[in-house]
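User: Sequence in, structure out. Go.
Assistant: Echoing your sequence, followed by the structure tokens.
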Amino acid sequence: MRQVLRLRLLLAGASERTVDVGGLPVRYFESLPQAPQPGQETLALVHGFGDSAETWWLVLPGLKREGRVLAPDLAGFGRTPIPQEGMSFSVLTDYLGRFLDTVGVQKAVLVGNSLGGAVVIRYAAEHPDRVSHLFLLDSAGLHAGATIAATQPETREEARETVKALTGKNLSVPRFVLDDIVRRARDPARQEYRHSDEPTDVSEYLPLIKAPTTIVWGERDGFIPIEHGARMRDAIDDSELIILPDVGHVPQLQASKRLLEIIRGRLGRFLGSRGG
């Protein structure tokens, strides 16, 4: 499936690249506008735990009119290998920042889903002058003491429950897909991150965010409750919370058109006025 989504991104005009970030080969997709305009943004799309850049296949093509769009694989996930420092919250955040530096990004709009949301929160708090707007999609970071909220499925039934938590729906899932979910849950990067001594905790970073922040939450998210989104909104100045009905944990896949409308609207380029 990832290979199919990779091909879809390439057919949509995205380029697949690899860049050396302090000795770590980071794979990413990049899309550039056909007619660049002065003042256009750079957007960086950051995926969640165990996911990859392909998760943005429905969103990245729709944002290329807004400016340069980057979708990297976080360190240890997708086609980016585990860094020598190991897998932890601080390491992932550090490599995101080093990636942006390496590809020449001085200031960016950051869009993060789940674990990616926690990473961009920490980055935005530590580098307030480098972030122009923050979009948090069902962001992780408020499960006290936990590295990640996602479950560790070991059987088909547990994999089925994982799918339900992700989508918010009782879907009929083929056995081979459930088996693949169980297999992927044993991935070394996932296991190493789970066993990190550093919790994925953003509570101290939320009040430090200076960028306008749009928090988007799926009403049916079975991993991270809407209440976490409300807590983030209350802790971040100049922030808003948008609830998406009948959507689970991954809005970029389950409500891509609505998400594009939200991002374009907040960046001052509404969907209707752009003819898309």
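User: And one key feature?
Assistant: The two ends are 27 Å apart (CA to CA).
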